[in-house]
Automatic annotation (TrEMBL):
Keywords for this protein: ATP-binding, Glycoprotein, Kinase, Membrane, Nucleotide-binding, Serine/threonine-protein kinase, Signal, Transferase, Transmembrane, Transmembrane helix
Protein name, per record: Receptor-like protein kinase FERONIA
Limits of the Malectin-like domain: 106-415
Highest rank taxon of the organism: Eukaryota
Chief subcellular location: membrane
Gene that this polypeptide is encoded by: LOC107957832
Any one GO CC term of the record: membrane
Location of the protein in the cell: Membrane
InterPro entries: ANXUR1/2-like, Malectin-like_Carb-bd_dom
Membrane topology: Single-pass type I membrane protein
Amino acid sequence: MSKKNQIMARSRMPSMFGMLLSFCSFLFITHNNSLVAISVEVASSYEPTDILILDCSSSDIPFLIERDDIGSFHVPRTNFSVVSKYYALAPVYRQKPQLCIHKKPFTYTFLVSSGPKFIRLHFNPFSFSGFHMSKALFSVSAAHFTLLKTSNASYSKLQLHDSYTVKEFCINVDDGVLNVTFTPSPDVSDAFAFVNKIEVISMPSNLYIQEAVSLPLIGQASSYYIKNSKALEMMHRLNIGGEFIPALEDTGMFREWIPDASFLTTDGSNSGIVISDVQIKQSSRIPAYVGPKQVYATARTVFADGSNQSRATWLLPVDSGFYYLVRLHFCEISNEAKRVGYRVFHVYIKDQTAEDQADIFLWSHGAGIPVYRDYIVNFSEHTKRRKNLSLLIRNGNGSIRTFKPAILNGLEIFKLSDSNNSLAGPFSFGMGKYSNPWRKEGASCRNHFF
């Protein structure tokens, strides 16, 4: 076997997603090219063509020592017994996640259908004998994109007890072959790369990148087009005013939506949560898979006062040096909404007007019908510090008898790859949104070295 170790897999999902409850086949890739397929029942609105998962956590994979010929090892087939809990980042696993540690460049090759794909990289920074996180200096590339590159700054504010990070990327695959390569820094002695899980999941072709659609560039009169030649990195995905939505409750793409409270900067006297009193309906305006119904069934609203100056403000950390796609999810959830002009309010992004007369009923043509609005925000000027992308909604200028309070249901923010085809920022693990589910467990960590 060659020095370049390749692990290949291919999956095709059965055409069963027409039913509300359907079965989803998970393919787990083991280190001897074995595949284990197990089905679980999930609610879905989208049928992924490919679902491929490489998981370093398996009790059947023996402890591996580093060898000169990194492709010469053999690992017995893994027995996965509890697949339905795989995506739930909760304390259902009673051992710490295992690691795949690479001291030399290492490539995983996935055979997939052509089209856009989610790539999710799971990292759980660790403390392990003979390895220190200060030496975990590496880059990860996929296709011709640099997805991330770690540095000492990546770990400067890292708390090992609460640092589980999932990095999600979106790239377009043209030729049916996706290579994901981990490269330890050649400039640092004993540098190594690590990962806990890799997921490759197909996605709808026009979910986030719509080449023909002109998007407003915040603060400028010009427009912006996102091409398929761009890669995206998900920075934030929030269920505004709602609870955590786990991957298995997404619309078939296993996205996780987290609550917005930790990003909200206004106090409780200015905003509150409202729950829909209308049925959330599908429409021809946006596909049902754009967001789960739970996102649109709740919202954060701005309390009214006599001055109409009440507002809700969120601050979302982002890396400088990039453009960002900001997607706002809206749904008119009041059964009193019967007409255009029922609820008109203002939206500001990066202290610039994004919508001066936001009218959800006008956009959606009815109550209970989800809709979203996309914007491009320029943070391309490089700085040494992380920046905050500000989002603000404020009630309209009319009296409360004229306009109902502003609301927002959901939010997604994506980094766009730069002119060098890079998404690498200085704080690779600084924005992990998932708490470490193993922090209270005492089991040892078994790892794999390559």
